[in-house]
Amino acid sequence: MRRRLLASYLAVAILVLALLEIPLAISYAENERQDLGDKVERDAVALATLVEDSLEHGTAVPAQVRGVVGDYGRDTGGRVVVVDAAGRALVDTAPTGSRDFSSRPEIAKALSGEIATGTRRSETLGADLLYVAVPVASSGVVHGAVRITYPMSAVNARIHRYWSILAVIAAGVLAVAVAIAFVLARWVVRPLDRLERAADAIGAGDFDARAPVQGPPEVRRLAETFNAMVAKLDVLVRSQDEFVADASHQLRTPLSALRLRLENLERDVAPAGQHELEGALAEVERLSALVDALLALARADRAAASPRPVDLTGIATDRLAAWSALADERGVRLDEQIEGPLTALATPGRLEQVLDNLLANALDVSPRGAAITVSTRSSDGEIELHVADEGPGMTEGERARALDRFWRAGGRGEGFGLGLAIVQRLVTADGGRVELREAPAGGLDAVVLLDPARARKESPPHH
After folding, report:
1. CB atoms within 10 A of CB 169
2. Among 377, 389, 458, 462, which is most buried by a count of CB atoms within 10 Å?
3. What does the pLDDT look like over 378-408, one tens digit per residue?
4. Helix (H) / strand (E) containing 130
5. How does pLDDT run across 26-84, given as a tens digit for each residue?
6. CATH number of the domain at 305-455, please?
C-alpha cells in the first residue's frame, strides 16, 4: 500500500510539473526564436538603408558601407548578402563562389517587395539557419535586397540550457515531493498496518488485540470503530463460550441423573413394561449423544486455527489401532494403505478428531464382513486422506448435501447429521477441503485434502 501511495503522489507531481514546465519550455523557445528573428529583421532594415543610395543610382557600394557590413558579420556571426535588382551579389560577407542569388526563394520574395523570414537546414554548414531578406526600395521601386542568415546554434544552446534548468528544477521538486509523499504515506499506512495486524490477531483468536488509534482523522475513526466492534465481538464470543460450558454442565448432569433413575426402575418394572423402559433409556442415550455432538460442533466453530506440520502417517496409524477393537466387535475389517512419511499442515489435535468422525460414520453404515480402507498419499501438490467404506453409499445429489448440518441421506442411520459437518469445519479452518466421492466398492469415499508442510511459505510483509 505504501508503494501505491508513493506512486500516486509521484504521478500527481509529475503531471503538475508537466502541465507547468512543458508549456513554459515551449513558450520560451518560441519567444527566443521570435526575438532573434525581430532583431535580425531590424538589422537587415538598417543595412538596407545604408546601401539604398548605391543601389538606387547603380553605383558601387562605398568602402565605408562595406566595412560596416563586414563588421556586422564578424561581430554577430551572421552572413550578409546585398544583391541588386537582378539578384546578383554586390556584397557578401561569406562568399561561396556563386554570385547569382536570384533563384533563392527568400531573395525572390524580397525583390518582389515583401519581407521574407524563416528557417532552413543548411547541409553545407550542417546547421539550422535563420534567414531574413528585406527589399531595398525607394519611391515604390525595388532596387535590390539585403539578406542576413544567422545560425540557430546560439539560440538553440540557450533554449537547451533553459530546458536543462527546468529539468533540474523538476528533479528537485520531485525529490522533495517523494520525501513528503514518503512521510505522508508512512503516516497513513503505519496505523493501517497495525490495524491489519490487529485484525489478523483477532482472526487467530486473540480478542485482547486492539488497533492503535493513530494517523489521519479518518484512520483514527476507523481504528476506534474497529476496536468497538472487537469489544462487542469479544463479549459475544465470551457469552458463547460461557453458554457452551453451561450447556455442557446443565444438560449432561440431568441426563445422567435421568439415566440412573431409569436404570434403577428396571427391577421394579413389570415384564410388560420392560420394552418401554428400554426405549426410554435408548432415547436418553440418543439425547446425550446429540448434546455431545452439538457441543463438539460449537467448539469446532469457535476454535482458532493454527496450522503447523503434523505427521499424518503416524496419526492415521494410531487412530486405526484405537478403532480396531470396535471394528472387530462389529465384524468390520480395517484395511490400511498408508504411504509415508507424509507431513501435512493442520492444527494439532484436529486430524485425530477428523479421522475419528470419519471412522465412526463408516462403522455405522458398514455391514458385518465389510471392510473400511484408510489410505494416504500425495497427489498434485496436496496430501490426501481417504476413508472408504462398503456401505450403501450416496447418490451424487446426496453427496452434494451430506456436509450440511443435520442432513442425513433419506433419514438412514442413527446419527444426527453432524459428524461430516464437524469434519468440514475443522478441515476448512486449516485451509483444506473435504470431498465425498463414490468408493470403488460402491460405498462412500470421504477425502480430506490438505496442504503439505513444505507448501506453506511466510507471507510477504504488507505495505
Report:
1. 13
2. 389
3. 887 889 999 999 988 888 888 888 777 666 6
4. strand 127-138
5. 998 899 888 988 999 999 999 999 999 888 888 888 999 999 999 998 888 889 999 99
6. 3.30.565.10
DSSP lists the bridge partners of residue 128 as 121
Phi, psi of 393 (to 5 degrees): 75, -170
CA atoms of 90 and 262, how far apart (whole Å): 140
Please tell me the CATH code under which domain 204-304 is placed. 1.10.287
Range with lowest mean pLDDT among 28-32, 219-223, 418-422: 418-422
Residue 378's φ and ψ, nearest 5 degrees, are -105, 130
Do 28 and 117 touch, CB atoms closer than 8 A? no
Asked if omega into 440 is within 30° of 0 (cis), the reply is: no
Contacts of 194 (CB under 8 A, 6+ apart): 211, 212, 214
Enter the C-alpha cell of residue 79. Answer: 552572413
SS3 content of the chain, % helix, strand, coil (to 5): 55, 20, 25
Q: Residue 303's closest CA among 197, 429, 210? A: 429
State the residue for C-alpha cell 502417517: 313
**Other C-beta atoms within 10 Å of 54: how many?**
20
Question: Which residues make up the CATH 3.30.450.20 domain(s) of the chain?
Answer: 2-157
Class level of CATH domain 2-157 = alpha beta
Strands 333-338 and 308-311: unpaired
- The answer to whether the beta carbons of residues 92 and 81 sit under 8 Å apart is yes
